[in-house]
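Lab notes, practical 5.
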Amino acid sequence: WAQNGGYVSNANDQAIKINSKADLDKYMAELNTYAQQLVNNVRDQFGTSQVQVSNGSKQVVQQIGNALTDENWNSLNGHDMNVDRNVAQANGLSQLSDQDMNVVMDKVLSKSWNLSLDDFKKALYESMQNYLFNGVEWNHATSVAGTRLGAKGKDVWMGLGWSFFTPTAETNQGVPVKD
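Output from the prediction step:
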């Protein structure tokens, strides 16, 4: 990743403004393709099978995102195994494997998000880099690389979804939250 020079911004993506959930929804297909390319570039280096994106995989992860938003789930709490299990069962799956790796946008969203498509792609890139090289995300790193024992040689499907977390006084260490 260092040899590639890090994330390279794209002027066209910088010009595309995302200021609402509806705006974000318009670009989810492109973000899914970008994330798939990032993962598959890593997998190429390991000689492992490519990940695929389907309408079904995108639907499953957005269902997870919707449930996490409904629960106001703080990703700092880790995986919400109940949500993962319930969404898997609702979609006829026995389980979800390597689910919900979080990409955290360190942004305070207001009525005007003031984000670009480039901001989202950069967040995906930096999260992927973090999973691979921070030294503590071993399960995520081996999942991205396709080297986990249970996933070797099997078809792997992925998708992106989004969820929103609104801090409360309880989750914000007692600091009052205005909005």
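Observations recorded by the TA: The two ends are 38 Å apart (CA to CA). The CA atoms of residues 74 and 165 lie 6 Å apart.
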